[in-house]
Amino acid sequence: TVTPVAPPAPPTPAPAPTPVAAVAPGSIVPLTTFQNAVVRNMVATLSVPVFRVGYTITTDELDKLYKQIKSKGVTMTALLAKAVAVTLQKHPLLNASYSDQGIVYHSDINISVAVAMDDGGLITPVLQNADAVDIYSLSRTWKSLVERARTKQLQPQEYNSGTFTLSNLGMFGVDTFDAILPPGQGSILAIGASRPQVVATPNGLFAVRQQMQVNITSDHRIIYGAHAAAFLQDLAKLIETNAHSLTL
């Protein structure tokens, strides 16, 4: 027999969208300065040869940890950023970027996290040195970054110093998606929702596990498929078997 599995916790409801000013049908609304900057960056990435690799990660241990420390102000975003940053220590090429002079291996691991703005824009606040900062400080920093991002009070180094980006649409119930590589970085990780799935256990029985799909987009000029796959494999191992280490 299989040990009974507790029913999964209900997903956190997606935040209600902020009402947008009504736009008259047939009208043209000029892009803001910020939106034009996003356009330029996204078009620039079209010149970069990229590839994508997907991986399924079981999140039961991470979810359990989150429930234990959520009351201390820890956010799931900070946990995911910390997990990625710690894994990048073993895979510096995934934290690197291309230049005409060669591969730039960055001295810091700075995790950018995509945040949707109320006006429809997008910004990527940066958790600097995410591998070295403890999870509680990282969570406090993240909350401050988001608050100041939404009021457009971030300093340039707080949104343009990232070396690796996370884009998480799991809170909207999205299962899987591909993210566009930001200029000046080598990789971006797209994270989907964690859902209960029926899986086969090592002893040939069935059980229910929480699983999420992640997809990495990487610059193929410097990163190859085996590099990305090895990174995802180690990220999954950390989240599935050693999530508690993220609090150390």
TrEMBL record:
The protein's name in its UniProt record: 2-oxo acid dehydrogenase subunit E2
Species the sequence originates in: Desmonostoc muscorum LEGE 12446
Molecular function terms from GO: dihydrolipoyllysine-residue acetyltransferase activity
SUPFAM superfamilies found in the cross-reference section: CoA-dependent acyltransferases
One of the GO biological process terms: pyruvate decarboxylation to acetyl-CoA
CC per GO annotation: pyruvate dehydrogenase complex
Stored InterPro entries: 2-oxoacid_DH_actylTfrase, CAT-like_dom_sf, E2/Pdx1
Every 2-oxoacid dehydrogenase acyltransferase catalytic domain range: 28-242
Domain of life (superkingdom): Bacteria
